[in-house]
Amino acid sequence: MNLVLCLLCIMLIPLAAAGLALIHQGLGRSRSAAHAMLASVCAMAISAIVFVAIGFSFAGFAGAPFHSIAAGGVGWDWLGAAGFFASGVHFDGVDPVGLSKALTLCLGMFAAGLAAMIPLSAGTDRWRLGPICLASALLAGLIYPLFAHWVWGGGWLAQLGTNFGMPGFVDMGGAGVIQVVGGSMGLAVAWILGPRRGKYSDDGMATAIPGHNIVQVLFGCVVALVGWMGLDSAASILFYGAGVTQVVGVVINAMLSASGGCLAAVAITRARYRKPDASLSANGWIAGLVAGSAACAMVSPVAAIDIGVIAGALVTYMIEIFELKLQVDDPGGAISVHAGAGMWGLIAVGLFGHFSDGTRGGHLLAQLVGIATLLGFMLPLLYAGNLLLNRFVPYRVDNDGDWQGMDIRELGAGAYPEFVVHADEFVPR
Amino acid sequence: MNLVLCLLCIMLIPLAAAGLALIHQGLGRSRSAAHAMLASVCAMAISAIVFVAIGFSFAGFAGAPFHSIAAGGVGWDWLGAAGFFASGVHFDGVDPVGLSKALTLCLGMFAAGLAAMIPLSAGTDRWRLGPICLASALLAGLIYPLFAHWVWGGGWLAQLGTNFGMPGFVDMGGAGVIQVVGGSMGLAVAWILGPRRGKYSDDGMATAIPGHNIVQVLFGCVVALVGWMGLDSAASILFYGAGVTQVVGVVINAMLSASGGCLAAVAITRARYRKPDASLSANGWIAGLVAGSAACAMVSPVAAIDIGVIAGALVTYMIEIFELKLQVDDPGGAISVHAGAGMWGLIAVGLFGHFSDGTRGGHLLAQLVGIATLLGFMLPLLYAGNLLLNRFVPYRVDNDGDWQGMDIRELGAGAYPEFVVHADEFVPR
Amino acid sequence: MNLVLCLLCIMLIPLAAAGLALIHQGLGRSRSAAHAMLASVCAMAISAIVFVAIGFSFAGFAGAPFHSIAAGGVGWDWLGAAGFFASGVHFDGVDPVGLSKALTLCLGMFAAGLAAMIPLSAGTDRWRLGPICLASALLAGLIYPLFAHWVWGGGWLAQLGTNFGMPGFVDMGGAGVIQVVGGSMGLAVAWILGPRRGKYSDDGMATAIPGHNIVQVLFGCVVALVGWMGLDSAASILFYGAGVTQVVGVVINAMLSASGGCLAAVAITRARYRKPDASLSANGWIAGLVAGSAACAMVSPVAAIDIGVIAGALVTYMIEIFELKLQVDDPGGAISVHAGAGMWGLIAVGLFGHFSDGTRGGHLLAQLVGIATLLGFMLPLLYAGNLLLNRFVPYRVDNDGDWQGMDIRELGAGAYPEFVVHADEFVPR
To answer: ipTM of the predicted structure?
Structure first.
């Protein structure tokens, strides 16, 4: 029964992808909108194929073979070793174990796609399609599975307890596995690409480049909510054994975290700029979903609101710091929304989670070990991997393309050929 | 099994919200489109938090404590008294009673949000965001739960029988609880706000102000269908014990009612104006969904078509009467579509429903008691509540804001900053 | 359990319709966009009512009465004979047989609507709304049910084995029943309508008329994916007895086929025109879904990728052949995407399917018999039916309407009245 529920929840996950794709393109320029959508679709597509072909082998699943390394006197399960091309998964059986395995493949396929879509938001308006495809393959085939194995596949982070008498690292809905990994890659990509032409003046002042379609951005938020409820529920059932009543809590918490995140961003932007900022409010909504997913089935509704409010507040400040202080041009706010709020969500597991065993301090420590791994190992790995790819296939469009927009430059046609658009504001000539 | 089905149906309800939000903004002006979407998202968000915090306590659920008042020799269950902040709901159990309770909270949270979104459609292009948030909190925290308790929480309308030997008032999918309540608030808000600038000339002639994006409106109709199928199914299972096969009927009936409503509006507008009106056809589709939801699991497919056709026809005339005769400016047609078609749906329960006991006349009478309560008690209450709020926080944007559009006025940025729009048609200068 | 899963999958099918509607309008002109959406909604609506009223009787279901004809010494089950107006379906029972029957009605209702929407894509920008409604009724009431009965209702194609010792014709997700039937009607309609004004110059050169909103087209692809996963899963369970684990395979395969189709189109258009074509890539995605649906629950993930890649490649060439060589103006590519890729999918059943009995040659032969029936009987029938309707109600808008656009001509108002559009490119004056 729970596994049927899990399957149906997985079927909703593409709506999270659909919502994020709408948000990404809507926060970018109209001259790059078709490119942004096609890049999202291609990232999903490549990730699905590459994850099924090789990524799933490395991600593995509880009970599958794995590679282990001995260090400090104990064995560290660091890499899955399931078959390539889903060879160990059979779809014609009726046993629950086989069904779980198939569901793990299915969920992983969509999760890898979500992770691969996140960096697109940071690279909007200047990241070329070819490198996007290669980077998605790298993420879905090698880097995402690594961390997914450590957390969801029975790897060393999940088993901190076995080696250290600590509780395991917990990430019920993928705040770390999907969001922080994707957001960290967004940071790596934004560093490599540099800002859009015209984003920063010579004296370092940032120009606001508003998103070209806020209606789609906010519609995407509601669509993404449905996908997120599916994602959080499915992962909670599959990796943490959540029951049906707990899943009701997951659905309620997802809505409340998103609500808290959005309203916090509305209130803060209104207080600071006298008018609420619609784009940041949308980012607050998604930040609430991101942060709430880590502890989705183990916190009360009140805690879910708190987690969302803090995520929404955090993101409004973090986006400003990245844009103005650090001069990292992240058009969709992916770094703050996915990596920033995701890390907060992982900490919130330790602060708010109901655990049946272990001390709160122990759980908090386990979460910090996971975050340290994300920042200290995954981010450098993502940066190095993308830097290497960028050597061979330059990520950034040339200067003319930046001015023309990605649609004309890379696809040869605009997204809205019949609509009259303001062609050249924001761009120095 | 049925409760798992119910949970998954609930997860589809946000698609109804997503569809309605698209419809609302598409039927308004482009200069207020981002505001319309943000208002929808904020109304959902506030409603969710306030309903979980306090509204659920008043809405209650069958078997929960309640407040009762003695009048006419019998006790009237008039208000729920469950715990605040969902304190009585536990998500870690496995018993069906606890699961039902959690599902009731979850469904109520989304239902309150839907009700709160409906009046936005009547207030499009002139209702400010701050008052929208307060009014949503008032609705979700106090007024919606009142009527929801009476119908779905075991209150006096559901128990007409116990006190009077009458059948209970029946509203399977929320045509009264959600739609008439929301639509009545739309009427109250439209009265308080008055028409948009330029809508009526000095001699009382109405100017047609067409919606700015009909593609989104019609797309929203199809998206809302999925959400509505979820809503009708979930409420039928949870509050009326519908079985799986009945839920199949609910899904079929939702599609047929929407179809009947849409085609009736197409045919009538074509007959009257020589060309079908796309906006009214969309309104007819939603009116079919609204009217069909009251009796969704207790009528045959043929009756569902009839209910939809009458709803669609009703709405085309009703929108005209409100716009031209009563000079109530309701850009999205929310009053007719939600309150009008909703009341028709409640009557249709008595006319078409298959009942296992009671006379048809008795059921019809029970439905009329419910409608009388909506018109005689809920509408005045909604009007008074909003009038009071309007005292402290003026609902209407000032004259400049009406001319500028809500996006620039309240959010400081337009929804489509790169598209060239006709800036000033329809507005007298 | 499986039937509850089936029901929930059916509830997702309207998302396939929503996605296709977005794609159709986005690939057409802005001046016909509202018309395209309203036509999609009306086609769904009419199909639902007509299918429930009469089509279901002819489509029938396994175990229902049917008409049989004796030829060549054996009996051919050629037409269902269930009750009209769903009279044989009861929604208040609890037995699995009654539930299956109700689900068959429900699935058929949506499937007929999908089939009826497909030809709209070929008739975009010139097919009038009245004839669209009549043609949808003809398809959903008579023609679709015929073929659906033969394949899904226990008719002669499903029972090839009984009469010939051959395996039965297999179409798990409707690649033939829905897609080829709909796409063939698209071809018939495109023939009858002729090309749009300005599409071909006097010397036969084709003018490219790009879609007016590629963002919506690509967003529609992701939304359609969810609906397709529901459709393939529901039909596999209901007509081919697929179990839960097989349905996980269906979901994975749908994603992989779509991915393969999209990436193949990206790669091929890039290789041929130096830049990937976003519209053709979207068509490749849908072609992958179409082709993959035939064998959805009986192939491995690797085969699903292959099926999708070949479908995507096929469609890029086929669209060009229809547009340039055959001078058939099919704005949305419906003929290639639905009929072309659908036939490939039916063949792929024979090439890639895992069968428990029968030889691969036998299965391939059965699939070819089905395709021959589609091309040799259904296509002429569709052409004749539409030609006849066209006699009485001319399909094509007049020359002025072609220039004005369908929105002004048939609906009296544009889809985007506030946006400034390029009014007259592509149209000779």
So the answer is: 0.96
